Amino acid sequence: MKNSPRYLFIVNPAAGRGRTKRLLPYIEFLIKELDIPHDIRLTSAPGEATDIAKKGIAEGFEFIVAVGGDGTTHEVVNGIIDSSATLGVISTGGGNDFPKAANIPLDVPRAVETLKKGRIRKLDIGLFAEQYFVNGLGIGLDGEVSHRYKRMKYLRGELGYLWGAINAALGFRGFETEVITQEWSYSGRVLLVGASNGPFQGGNFKLAPQARVDDGLLDIHIVQEMSRIKRLINMPKVRHGKHLHLKGVHIRQSTWIEIRTKENLPAHMDGEPFYLQPGKHRIEVLPGKLRVIAS
Question: Which among 42, 80, 154, 241 could disulfide-bond with 85, CB atoms 3.0 to 4.6 Å apart, if both were Cys?
Fold first, then answer.
């Protein structure tokens, strides 16, 4: 519609353990201070941001802004893909891994300012089982961390992910898998396997330090099974991206990956937990598919 506001803000008030809800009046003030023509709509259930985004596209909004964490951004992206709309992000969630990769400020005032004064970039996205992801997909140990984090009542953000990682490292059992890429394959018992679009996962774990959101590639990461004590010793190295030299760590770049599994496994997509069914699964990158406003 010709007279509709150009910016639609889709707000997940539950993101960041309620932090987003508390910040919303301040965010509205900043939006009005910059004279950004807008409408604000709140989600009330998982998956709703996708439907709101689709309706926003139909109503003619040019910028669709996700206000929340990576999960909120994930839902919004799945609503605007294949449209001419541009994604904006105001990070108020727990992990906020995608904004760090996309050069979107984590500071709320700067993020709002970027919506009006930033530049539009075309970034890659991943595709798995008819769902798009912006930052990464993980199976195994990091999936278990996401499930544990989701169940936490009090801890949030980096501390919550760290606590979940320590507990998962002590209790998670490795699994058999087969991985095939364009130029490489692996078969054996692993702790985790996945595909990264950006370098960070789980709040501040630099799992794929060389990953870039605009290089047309996914960084495939595999960590082989290891003892519990080695898991704990190596965890700080993973946080700082210093784990690439470790025995049993494999990182490869590819435009696609096929993963074969034999059991139900904890997994996550952009930090949102789910369970992966046994079978063959394909993940691929779609280069430059997403328009994003960044600094």
Answer: 80
Whether 79 and 290 have beta carbons less than 8 Å apart is answered as no
Terminal-residue alpha carbon distance, the chain: 28
Supply the pTM of this predicted model. 0.93
Q: Which fold has domain 136-287?
A: Tumour Suppressor Smad4 (2.60.200)
Given a contact cutoff of 8 angstroms between Cβ atoms, the answer to whether 193 and 227 are in contact is: no
Angle in degrees, 0-180, between the axes of helices 108-117 and 19-33, rounded to the nearest 10: 40
Going by their DSSP bridges, the two strands 63-68 and 86-91 should be labelled as parallel
Specify which residues 256 forms β-bridges with: 284
Binning the chain into helix, strand and coil, the percentages to the nearest 5 are: 30, 35, 35
145 within 8 A of 94, measured Cβ to Cβ: no
- Angle between helix axes 70-80 and 48-58 (nearest 10 degrees) is 40
Q: Which CATH architecture has domain 7-117?
A: 3-Layer(aba) Sandwich (3.40)
Residues of the chain with CATH 3.40.50.10330: 7-117
CB 280 within 8 A of CB 258: yes
Q: Residue 193's closest CA among 267, 86, 105?
A: 267
Domain with CATH 2.60.200.40 in the chain: 136-287
Spell out the alpha helix ranges (H) of 34-96: 48-58, 70-80
Q: What is the pLDDT of residues 213-248, one digit of tens each?
A: 999 999 999 999 999 999 999 999 998 999 999 999
Residue 273 main-chain phi, psi, to 5 deg: -75, 145
User: Which residues are CB-contacts of 190 (< 8 A; sequence separation ≥ 6)?
Assistant: 140, 174, 175, 176, 177, 222, 223, 224, 225
What would the DSSP string read from start to end of 2-39?
TTS-SEEEEE-TTTTTTHHHHHHHHHHHHHHHTT--EE
Q: What is the pLDDT of residues 140-156, one digit of tens each?
A: 999 999 999 888 877 77
